[in-house]
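Crash report, auto-generated. Payload:
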Amino acid sequence: MAQGVNIENYSFWYGRTQVVKNISLSAPVRQVTALIGPSGCGKTTLLRSINRLHELHPGTKAEGRIAIGEEDIFSAAVDPVDLRRRVGMIFQKPSPFPHLSVFENVAAGLRLHGLAQGKEVAERVEACLRKAALWEEVKDDLGRKGALLSGGQQQRLCIARALAVEPEVFLMDEPCASLDPVGTMRIEELIRELKHDYTVVIVTHNMHQASRISDQTAFVLSGELVEVGRTKEFFLAPQDPRTEAYLTWKIG
Amino acid sequence: MTNRRKRKALGLLFEALCVLAAGIAILVLALILYYVFRRGIAVVNFSFLTSLPAPVGVAGGGIGNALIGSLLMVGLGALIAVPVCIAAAVFLDQNPASKLSAFVRFATRVLSGVPSMVIGLFVFGQLVLRTGNYSALAGGIALSIVMAPIITLSAEEMLRLVPSSQREASMALGATKQQTVFRLVLPGAAGGLIVGVMLAVALAAGQTAPVLLTALTSRFWLESLQQPTASLPVLIYHYATSPFADWQAHAWGAALVLVVAILVLNVTAQLFLGLSNRRR
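Recovered output after restart:
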């Protein structure tokens, strides 16, 4: 079941440096929310807070509330390991497990969480590869190493891998940054498909990409949320002068 | 213009020196191999590899028991060192910045610099003197200490080659730290880990002092881990320093067997490393 993400008064520190400053933002269910902003503005940190991946680094501190659906992800009842199963993440650098085959990459999450057994595994793997628009390209050789695919195929393999554990939310951290235009187009098509079933939050440096695929756009600058709005209005008529400056390449 | 010509000349000179230095290094190895082959090849045959040593003056005889003793003690050493050292490397890899890690790294480097004679003496004092006998077990333990720093340091390097992006991907999929180590990091680094073990085994196989002081030697087939045991390096040492021509010939033969075994291990490790790198 897809769930929306609700961020309330969220702040984050690396050591003494505050990189996210009191951000409140809602990512509505079954929509694409794009986070844009210059490098180092805190948008990736914000994204990585949603599956508590930032906690893996020592010396960090978080304040505020992030909820998936109704559930506060920082409450003591939430196990971060379980949370990460429910929140799929796609990274900037395609990261299929290099020692595993295409098939085993997608099956990895199923096996990890005991979600499928026997024949069911193969069925789920095929379904996920189809959903990630990769099946036709790999079906003849599912045993080949995942790392031997092209960059764009690897990224779709990672999406299939994330789909397999049926997440409620998809986080994407510049998923097209290392892809060529064709690979980028494929991923964008896929994101448009995915939003029918999932809530997607995507960090992107590419403002055209944000305007093409997102329903809502948020602009983050120096750790602050400057402006958030429906994507069409956001790009046509930005309210904040800093947003306008960024959109016209004057800052960042 | 002259400046450029000067730089070019300097570059050529430096390149020539490098080639010369590399040539000298290769030449030394080539000479050793040449002499060992020339002197040793005459005595090496099937019965040499499979028979017990013969008394002085008796024709035939071989290094069968020393070969088995070496294989056993090196195997025993690896059996002890590999699990402990890989586990230590996993700890170092998972806690790169902790104080304990820094200390473990320091201790490992110091241990790698300890002369193998001292390691032999340590096991001699702690085990041989206490139990009252030289044994294959003591030899294996001494060799495990010789191998430990090489395996630990190389394993840490190999584990670190597994990129953090993949580890994060694993964690983001809902894997715990342990699951990430066992399902991603260790299998992903397996090729490199094996190479490190092979190199450590190759080094340990040639060590004389640790086995001389702990397993001594024997003229008989190995019957238990609790008795003195022959090994190739010790046999070479005894035979080469003996006054008898046929024993000296056997020392060359044993040296040939040992050198070829170590060479094969090293070359296999290199090929293996090349293969696993290409797959990456």
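Post-recovery validation: The longest helix of chain A spans residues 151-164.
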